[in-house]
Amino acid sequence: MRGLLYKEFHQFKADFYVLAGLLAFFCGLCITSAVTAEAETPQDLMMAITMISSLIYFLVLFLGSILCSEFFTKDEKRPWNHFAMSLPLAVKGQVQAKYYAVLVVHLMVLFACFVTDVVIVVVSGNAQHSAIAVGVIMFSFRMLVMAFEIPFMFRFGAQQGMNVEGAFLTLFFIVLIIYGLFGDISFFLQENVWKAFMEWLMSGNAIWVIALLPYAAAVAYYVSYRISLKLYRKGVESSGE
Amino acid sequence: MESKKLTIKRIIIFYVLAFLPLAVLTPLATHYVGEYIYASKKENAMAIAYALGVFGMFAPTVANLLTRWITKEGMKDSYLALHMEGNGKYYLAAVGIKLLEVVLEVFLIWKVFFGDVPFSEMFSGEDLSQKTAALLLQIASSIILFFPAFGEEWGWRGYLGPKLEQVMSRPAAIIVGGILWGLWHAPVTMAGHNFGVDYPYFPWAGIGFMCLMCTCFNAFLTLLTERTKSIYPAAFCHMINNNCGAGVLLLLFASETVAERFEGLSQMRVSATMIPAFLLVGIVSFVLYMKKTKAADS
Questions:
Q1: Quick check: A212 and B136 in contact, CB under 8 A?
Q2: What pTM value is reported for the model?
Q3: Do B124 and B256 touch, CB atoms closer than 8 A?
Q4: Residue B81 half-sphere exposure, CB side, CA atoms within 13 Å?
Q5: In 3D, which of B232, B215, B207, B206 has the Cα closest to residue B282?
Q6: Do B151 and B61 contact (CB within 8 A), yes or no?
Q7: Chain A partners of B49 at a C-beta cutoff of 8 Å?
Q8: Shortest CB distance from B47 goes to which of A121, A136, A210?
Q9: Contacts of B130 in chain A (CB under 8 A)
Q10: How far is B111 from chain A (nearest CA, A)?
Q11: A202: which chain B residues are within 8 Å (Cβ-Cβ)?
Q12: Given A100, A146, B135, B270, which residue has the most CB atoms within 10 angstroms?
């Protein structure tokens, strides 16, 4: 397993540098925004910093997920896939290595968000600031999406796997547009939408969904791994046909 | 097998490197703020205390890496692999046993300080459902954001523990490891961390108490680490201890009146009330660890 993980991250080296650069840029931007942000009241300032941090955490976790597809595309060569199946660790090892690698990359991004959050606490001198809870929710959401995506990547290739996410996002935006055209949008017309959103998030309506999201993501990730074990061989056999 | 002398040298280098950051930065921060930073109610003091706590927890990990580099040890026996296969029960125990211990601690606190309030009403309120959801989220967040605890565990259980076992018996290693870990907290304990500053024999009683708590906790964390040969179960358990401990639960999730009364209690008295729970888990872990070790040896 250690060898396979080494291979994954060795191949990922160039993308890792890109990810590290992006993380440094966005986390730096986040800290700079926290230092320079201005608002009428301390509460508004805290809200603004939390909003900026949350959006940046969402963005970097999303970028991490996109770069993770490289773990799959780099292996989509017939000789490697067939050779991999003949290794002592065989299918289980290959699949496990991919799931570990994807998890590690997401944890690395989350760690960068966590450090950013602590630095913001220091530079803003505001002990109450914490956007990392949003980071945890985003992380869980990304892991849930990856749990759906990875089996498709194993079975039909990385491109098809990413198409699943593309289709998911397209569907989401179509629903959003339809809602925007015909639904009640008074929520979005409020003076402070972000504040209203945070209040809704912590209200009785949403908190159970959010609280169960990490557990659902963990179960989904494990189930996804079991499904991928079954699909890996089929994916290899159909690749290059 | 490396020589005993070299191992002792590594232990000393590791401990000095792990101890220095908090020993230097905590008095500086206290001087900067002008009062005990962990007892201060100033906003900037709380911000510094939080950051110092989080970054300080990474000192043992940095010390682990630096000691390996200085003494040319390499990365063997790193305890970084997950080893989940066949060890699922230990991963579950890391979270489950700790949560059970917290429940016992809450029960003890209730018995000593809130006997006049029925136990069922300790966490009552209209928003009980929301509180339950928030607690679940708190537990999940503690496990996902395990980084600071990883920072400590990779040093104490992933490096110091195995090294101590090479130079002394296992029971002694657990006790000495726990005391060294407790003493490592001394700079922050002297700044009011965990027990505040308003207790008799401050800060010595706090330092001694921390050593006792750390020895009990060390037994359980060592058991988890040695059974799985991985530091992650210990890191998850440590994070649950820090983020979902009895004090945190009572402050965040208890009914309004209980939370208010709890806030007014002496932190040292509250910690002392929880001793039976620490001791129970510590002693059982110690016995289990020694029992399995004996079985393996024979």
A1: yes
A2: 0.89
A3: no
A4: 19
A5: B215
A6: yes
A7: 127
A8: A121
A9: 202, 204, 207
A10: 30
A11: 130
A12: A146
First-to-last C-alpha distance (Å) of chain B: 21
Residue of A nearest to B80 (CA): A2
Pairwise CB contact (< 8 Å): A125 & B141? no
The pair of three-digit structure tokens given for residue A137, joined into one six-digit string? 């929710």
Q: Residue B74: CB partners within 8 Å, gap ≥ 6?
A: B68
Residue B234 identity (one-letter amino acid): A
Of A103, A189, A197, nearest in space to A150 by CA? A103
pLDDT tens readout for residues B82-107: 888 889 999 999 999 999 999 999 99
Which residues of chain A make contact with B48, given a CB cutoff of 8 A? 122
pLDDT per residue of chain A (241 residues) written in tens, 0 to 9: 777 788 778 877 888 888 899 899 988 988 888 888 777 777 777 888 888 888 888 888 888 888 887 778 777 666 666 666 666 667 888 899 899 999 999 999 999 999 999 999 888 888 777 788 889 999 999 999 899 889 988 888 877 777 877 887 788 888 888 888 887 777 777 777 777 777 776 666 788 888 999 999 999 999 999 999 988 888 877 765 5
Q: Which of A100, A128, A215 sits opposite B140 (nearest CB)?
A: A215
Chain A residues with CB-CB distance to B under 8 A?
1-2, 100, 110-111, 114, 118-119, 121-122, 124-128, 132-133, 136, 139-140, 202, 204, 207-208, 210-212, 214-215
- Chain B residue closest in CA terms to A140: B144
Point out the residue among B47, B127, B144 whose CB comes nearest to the CB of A122. B47
* Nearest-10 crossing angle of helices B128-144, B88-113: 130
| Contact in structure between B140 and A211 (CB atoms under 8 Å) | yes
Tokens of B269: 């008295």
A127 contacts B43? CB cut-off 8 A: yes
Between A124, A125, A139, which is nearest B144 by CB?
A139
Instruction: Please tell me which residue of chain A has the smallest CA distance to B137.
Output: A211
What's the per-residue H, E or C state across A186-207?
HHHHCCCHHHHHHHHHCCCCCH
- Where in chain B are the domains? 76-297
Looking at chain B, how many residues does it have?
A: 298
Cα–Cα distances in angstroms (integers) from residue B241 to residues A71, B72, B146, B281, in the given order: 35, 34, 11, 13
Q: Is the dihedral of CA B239, B242, B243, B249 positive or negative?
A: positive
**H helix or E strand, kind and range, residue B212:** helix B204-228
**What is the Cα A240 distance to its own chain's centre?**
30
Per DSSP, chain B holds a count of helices (H) and strands (E) of 15, 0
**What ipTM goes with this model?**
0.90
Q: Which tokens is A23 given?
A: 């993380």
What is the rounded CA–CA span in Å between residue A83 and residue A81? 5
Residues of A with Cβ-Cβ distance to B46 under 8 angstroms: 127
Among A149, A144, A12, CA closest to A75: A12
